[in-house]
Amino acid sequence: MTAIALETKSASELENKLAGKLKEMYEGASHGQKSTMAHLFALRHAKELDKLDGAAKKRIANNATGVPSFESEFNKMINLSEYVEVTEQMTVIKLENKLKRMIENAPEDNKVTMIHLFALLYANELNKLDGATKERIAAKAAGHSSYIAVFNDMIKLAQYVEVKSEIRKEFI
Predict the structure, then answer these.
(1) Do the Cβ atoms of 45 and 83 come closer than 8 Å?
(2) Which one has a higher pLDDT value, 129 or 78?
(3) In Å, how far are 39, 76, 99, 121 from 70, measured between CA atoms?
(4) Measured distance between the N- and C-terminal CA atoms of the chain, rounded to whole angstroms
(5) Ranges of each domain in the chain
(6) Mean pLDDT, to the nearest integer, of 126-131?
(7) Is 131 helix (H, G, I), strand (E, B) or coil?
(8) Which of helix, strand or coil describes residue 18?
(9) Predicted structure pTM score
């Protein structure tokens, strides 16, 4: 295989890999967060995207999201990446799993307490989510979407209380 063929194959593989990652982030985003996920994707993969030409970035954007104009956003995020670091936040699935485990491992008479504690522990993460996503977490992990009211109350309360450090270590 020639050097050009190898280079083309690796560029194509890179495009496919990046398109797959973007698609996963984009499709997994809640309503109103899809564009944010495209920006986050570009920040996370700025070095890889920077190696590609505009046509390749446009193909990645179009194949993963159906929005080829994200290519220009990729370029903006590549430039921004020199000034920021990506912080990892809890994903919705991780939050669901955390709450589910807290409830499953709690004594029967403390299950509702664990929902309150979960919301206090993850108030910052929950506060960034829209109502429908919080309802989904409540429904999937706690068995009922009405626990969103508990989440919202505990998010507010978290401004005034702090979970004891030994409890925080046990659950985080």
Answers:
(1) no
(2) 78
(3) 8, 10, 34, 35
(4) 50
(5) 3-80, 92-171
(6) 87
(7) helix
(8) helix
(9) 0.55
